[in-house]
Task: structure prediction
Amino acid sequence: MKYTDEFKRDVVALARQGNATQRQIGKDFGVSKSALAAWIQKAELAERGLVTVASDGSTDDAAALREALKRIRLLEQEAEVMRRAVAYLSQAQLPK
Result:
């Protein structure tokens, strides 16, 4: 069954209130617990900017993956610079 984006947003908002379990909310609205969990996860990723949501409600996973990989490469480069700096500074501090 295809659910509207508005329906998904409403059910996710209700689940986030924490007044009922995801299982109970899913049962009340005829949605599986796994589908509800996926909707919640997608909403959280969209809020953090890790998944872009188009105006029609669809997500551009490929673009999000590219952005995540770009961020990972940058963080790996920063970590390498820090490792080299620590190695250099630790050699400079050795008593002779």
About this structure: The longest strand covers residues 52-53.
